[in-house]
């Protein structure tokens, strides 16, 4: 039984994995969906460092080295966990995203309003990102979406331990293909993964939120790692 730490991307908490958790458990693993500081707990002043500390605490609490899964923007959080605990993380799985480099802001695509970044609606995600989500799934995601404190989105990524490049990485490719991802890395668009020593690619036929649209398939992909 392997611990699989699950970190959802922007606006989502641990409940985003509700359909994935029983599938992973049935496959013999212990899924641990994480709800981080600032995700609906009233901690409007939560920072990126607070979220990283919560993930590192979950890594430390695992009886064996866990698989750390980051989705979308939280791919950076998973990579920060590998940086903080390069000997404590068995593998990092990145779903639909890539880790930011040292000195970059965590998520600066939308401006905060009143100290938080709120879900902007579906218009920015039209096309391959959301093509496999019906109206019901979109409504569920939007209803679950939580404002993310500006102290998280504007936090600066700090990477300090080059042993992170020894941690195996699997890129789970939903709305883009493994060939796309390889091309971006080889072109220098993802410097962190260009330096990673062990990068694998797995395709999954879904949009950007496979935990909602393909939970059983996503669970099989993660369990196989």
From TrEMBL:
GO terms for molecular function: catalytic activity. Residues 4-220 form the AB hydrolase-1 domain. InterPro entries: AB_hydrolase_1, AB_hydrolase_fold. This is Esterase. It comes from Virgisporangium aliadipatigenens. The lineage of its organism: Bacteria, Bacillati, Actinomycetota, Actinomycetes, Micromonosporales.
